[in-house]
Design brief:
Layout: H1 5-18, H2 30-33, H3 44-58
Length: 74
């Protein structure tokens, strides 16, 4: 039991660091995250078109992240 004590102390220290009362993103920082520079795609119109193409080719909605296809063979 005593040889596992350092492991328990390390786990307790790591888990206590995850708990906090204040939010990670402060209310005054949310404006920075809403900036168009922070978007994942450089061209949202092109990505919307590519999503439409993927949906039409799969024959089902949500083809960009779901398993299976539109043929019903899964």
């Amino acid at each position: 039991m005593t040889m596992y004590l350092p492991i328990y102390v390390i786990i307790a220290a790591v888990l206590s660091g995850c708990m906090g009362a204040e939010p990670w993103v402060k209310p005054y920082e949310r404006g920075n995250l809403a900036d168009p520079v922070m978007q994942f795609d450089r061209d949202p119109v092109s990505s919307m078109y590519m999503n439409h193409v993927h949906e039409a080719r799969e024959g089902a909605r949500g083809a960009s992240g779901s398993a299976g296809g539109g043929c019903g063979c899964n």
